[in-house]
Amino acid sequence: MTYQAAPSRYIKMIYNKCGTSGLKLPAVSLGLWHNFGDDTPHDTKRALCHTAFDLGITHFDLANNYGPPAGSAETAFGEILKHDFKAYRDEMIISSKAGYLMWEGPYGEWGSRKYVIASCDQSLKRMGLDYVDIFYSHRFDPETPLEETMGALDHIVRSGRALYVGISSYNSEKTRQAAAILKEMGTPFIIHQPSYNILNRWVETDGLKDTLVELGLGSIAFTPLAQGILSKKYLQGVPQGSRAAQGKSLDPVTITPKALGSVQALDAMAHARGQTLAQMAIAWVLRNGQITSALIGASKPEQIIDCVGALENLTFTTSELAEIDAISEEKDINLWAQSSMSQ
Ligand SMILES: NC(=O)c1ccc[n+]([C@@H]2O[C@H](COP(=O)([O-])OP(=O)(O)OC[C@H]3O[C@@H](n4cnc5c(N)ncnc54)[C@H](OP(=O)(O)O)[C@@H]3O)[C@@H](O)[C@H]2O)c1
User: Which tens digits make up the pLDDT trace of 284-312?
Assistant: First the structure.
């Protein structure tokens, strides 16, 4: 059946300016890291994308390696673009990234000019696009001069392959250096993509969050639900079909009784606020306007509907914030720590 976007799609969504740039991003964006590989039925992927777009989620985030197998999420999204979203391309912000292992040999990962540009071309081909709206360096490469990786991003924009560029999981210091290089070249560098949630606050301790505001950069926080831990789903064990049950990126070992104790306390708080825990976790990420967008993932359309409901209450009292601070000591579940710690 031909997809028709909901006429109501722009009524409830909040759009935030991405730093000092002219681009606005939805307060909630959808990432295609999980549930868009060949192991998920195509109809599920379509339903997720349709639900998101109908709710005003204009931003879809991908990367070369999303799948499994790597590349299949971009291929699937390309199909959806072609068959369902063709008429809406100019209403969408599509991003992709290069940095993690994509193909064999010395040119298939990290940050060389050779890899980053070739990978961008492959992503465009898989998605059937002439350009992406944002192209990211997915992780800092300690073995490649930063000038080379940033130069590759600059080339990607100048050659028409992307409109804007971003970096992901770079720490505050590397972000400052990258920003200085890109400023010198006049590259439209507008966004950083770090992990950030109640159980993983490295962007605060590292100073990155304040650095981004100071540099006028936007930010899109990935894993705002700690891959689903910040919902009720793991309180009674690991349910079948959940991410922790799949043996992929969420090791059930990280869902410790201590972490679950925190989740229980947070769930009680959310209930008192009239929100689900997932909604409160998203509202918390967006709480003081420093983060442009919360980048969620979903396995079911209902989860996206629930997450967007977070926007109905983004305000926290001082005592609620203090309670969350007390609960949310770092839980060592920042899988991206290595990239952000690289010197
Ligand atoms: N730059 C990077 O290095 C990097 C790394 C990781 C992710 N990302 C980006 O960030 C995106 C989001 O990451 P993520 O998927 O880990 O984010 P997340 O939002 O923290 O976790 C998503 C998972 O939480 C569960 N969930 C979502 N909404 C829910 C709700 N309302 N109630 C209960 N459970 C809910 C689902 O788990 P179940 O599947 O178990 O149902 C879903 O798959 C990725 O798709 C990707 O675009 C970027």
Answer: 999 989 999 999 999 999 999 999 999 99
pTM across the whole model: 0.97
Q: What is the pLDDT of residues 190-245, one digit of tens each?
A: 999 999 999 999 999 999 999 999 999 999 999 999 999 999 999 998 999 999 99
The domains of the chain, with CATH numbers, are 15-341 (3.20.20.100)
Nearest CA to ligand 1 atom 48: 222
Q: How high does pLDDT run on average in the chain? A: 95
Residue 129 in this model has a pLDDT that exceeds 80: yes
**Residue nearest ligand 1's atom 27 by CA:** 298
Residue 307 CA, closest ligand 1 atom number: 31
The answer to whether 212 and 172 have CB atoms below 8 angstroms apart is no
Beta-bridged to residue 197, according to DSSP, are 200
128 vs 330: CA distance, rounded Å: 41
Distance CA 199, CA 232 (A): 15
**Residue of 225, 232, 236 to test ligand 1 pocket, by largest number of atoms within 8 Å of CB:** 225
Ligand 1 pocket test, pick from 57, 93, 141, 227 with the greatest ligand atom count within 8 Å of Cβ, gives: 227
Residue 227 CA to ligand 1 center (angstroms) comes to: 5
CB 295: neighbour CB atoms within 10 A?
A: 25
pLDDT in tens, 42-59: 999 999 999 999 999 999
What residues contact residue 217 under an 8 Å CB cut-off, 6+ apart? 19, 175, 179, 189, 190, 191, 192
Question: Which residue owns the Cα nearest ligand 1 atom 45?
Answer: 31
CA of 224 to the centre of ligand 1 (A): 7
CA-proximal residue: ligand 1, atom 11 (nearest): 31
CB distance 305 to 56 below 8 Å = no
